[in-house]
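Quick one, tokens below:
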């Protein structure tokens, strides 16, 4: 059996790698800029975030305080159409974004400490993208009155919204493309990447090559698939109830551990912040440090918070509300929590412990990548912290998988129709993907995950550009209602 298990894992990796390479080659087509290869998709996301920030007059800052009030439930009640509360919707969406991309340390391992600066900037700008797509998701959602369920997301606002503006064929084409990519993203980043990295961390803390799980990624995947299956059978209500409990717990656990590491290295914290700034504006100039750090920072930020990708709009569409803008405002908190807080904590831990400096990984990194690099950084501060990280990793992965199962399901049923058979087939494929992901090498998982998720942004952002005047009208009406007192908190 020991000889068979590694062979099975190797065969799965060998079968998936060519497909991952082909998809990634198309999506991440790059052009040379001062000697650095710049993926066009990264520029696509950067420009969109800047456009929405300017067009909506920095809504991420103007609406931040009000967003907190919305999440607290002061502008909604159970009698409103929808399936989940604003807090549950935010928790579900955050669980889909606060995954292992937040703690894998890929940005700083590839772009040096300076990637942190650009990652935070991308997160702040991405808040405007998130606001735009979620507002549209709630506005154009389908309410199934008999079943008491909701279907929403880019598939709906691309098809319905663009049809309203006179582009029905374009809307259907973009919606179909998005849905196909979303299914691929759910099977890739939504579970294969999560299963892969959680397996790697559990394997590391249980003995590495001497572990009983060595070469048995498929066995770990089966266990995770069973746990995921217990929740996703209950739909978004079940998912939201679980994520509303897991998200605060896992975030608090991870941030507390990170704060302990920073406290133990308090004397090095100014140096670490200096490395971030030096790396962001490296003396090597645009030809080297700046572009490299910028690209890796923006790329990781987009993968972690998915602003502009459109996935979160699917979860937020299920919220109990009669105001689309209110949930759009609540959604802009996601990139802040996900990237500005959690990703920054990861980066600072890795830098402050000396595993990465302004130029990139140091000798302490020992060639580690992904979660292994973050684990090495935590372990260098407190010997048993990799066990804490392992628990956080499993929670992060689990919450991400159950949320992305819902994203993929809604895209699948948009393409093939709703019904028990269609939904059952997708859930079976999704659970099989968990097993496959745990059995594969990291390379093909990241390639496939990044490619499919970023491809979703191609269709989504075209639709956002064409529909942002609709969001502007909704926002103006909403602010006017707030200022005139027509819209009041429920407690008043």
């Amino acid at each position: 059996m020991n000889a068979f298990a590694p062979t099975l894992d190797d065969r799965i990796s060998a079968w998936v790698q060519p497909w991952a390479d082909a998809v990634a080659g198309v999506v991440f087509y790059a052009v040379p800029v001062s000697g650095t290869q710049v993926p066009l998709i990264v520029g696509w996301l950067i420009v969109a975030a800047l456009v929405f920030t300017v067009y909506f007059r920095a809504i991420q800052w103007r609406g931040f305080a009000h967003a907190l009030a919305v999440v607290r439930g002061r502008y909604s009640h159970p009698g409103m159409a929808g399936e989940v509360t604003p807090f549950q919707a935010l928790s579900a969406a955050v669980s889909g974004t606060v995954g292992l991309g937040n703690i894998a340390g890929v940005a700083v391992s590839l772009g040096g400490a300076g990637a942190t600066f650009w990652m935070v900037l991308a997160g702040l700008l991405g808040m405007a993208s998130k606001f735009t797509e979620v507002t549209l998701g709630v506005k154009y959602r389908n309410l199934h009155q008999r079943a008491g369920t909701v279907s929403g997301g880019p598939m709906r606002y691309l098809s319905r919204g663009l049809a309203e503006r006179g582009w029905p064929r374009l809307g259907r084409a973009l919606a179909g493309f998005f849905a196909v990519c979303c299914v691929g993203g759910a099977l890739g980043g939504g579970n294969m990447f999560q299963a892969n990295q959680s397996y790697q961390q559990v394997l590391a803390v249980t003995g590495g090559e001497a572990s009983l799980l060595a070469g048995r990624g498929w066995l770990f995947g089966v266990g995770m698939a069973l746990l995921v299956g217990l929740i996703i059978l209950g739909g978004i209500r079940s998912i939201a109830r679980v994520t509303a409990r897991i998200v605060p717990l896992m975030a608090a656990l991870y941030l507390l551990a990170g704060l302990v590491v920073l406290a133990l290295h308090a004397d090095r914290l100014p140096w670490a912040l200096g490395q971030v700034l030096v790396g962001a504006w490296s003396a090597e100039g645009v030809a080297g440090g700046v572009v490299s750090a910028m690209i890796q920072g923006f790329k990781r930020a987009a993968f972690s918070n998915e602003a502009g990708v459109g996935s979160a709009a699917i979860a937020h569409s299920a919220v109990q509300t009669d105001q689309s803008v209110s949930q759009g405002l609540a959604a802009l908190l996601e990139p802040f929590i996900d990237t500005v807080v959690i990703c920054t904590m990861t980066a600072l831990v890795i830098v402050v412990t000396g595993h990465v400096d302004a130029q990139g990984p140091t000798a302490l990194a020992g060639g580690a990548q992904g979660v292994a690099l973050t684990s090495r950084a935590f372990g260098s501060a407190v010997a048993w912290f990799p066990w804490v990280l392992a628990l956080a990793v499993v929670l992060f992965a689990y919450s991400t998988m159950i949320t992305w199962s819902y994203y993929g399901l809604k895209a699948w049923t948009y393409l093939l129709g709703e019904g028990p058979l269609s939904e059952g087939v997708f859930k079976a494929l999704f659970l099989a993907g968990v097993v496959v992901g745990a059995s594969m090498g990291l390379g093909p998982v990241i390639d496939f995950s990044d490619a499919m998720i970023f491809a979703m942004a191609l269709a989504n952002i075209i639709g956002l550009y064409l529909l942002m005047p609709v969001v502007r009208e909704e926002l103006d009406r909403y602010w006017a209602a707030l200022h005139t007192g027509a819209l009041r908190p429920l407690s008043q």
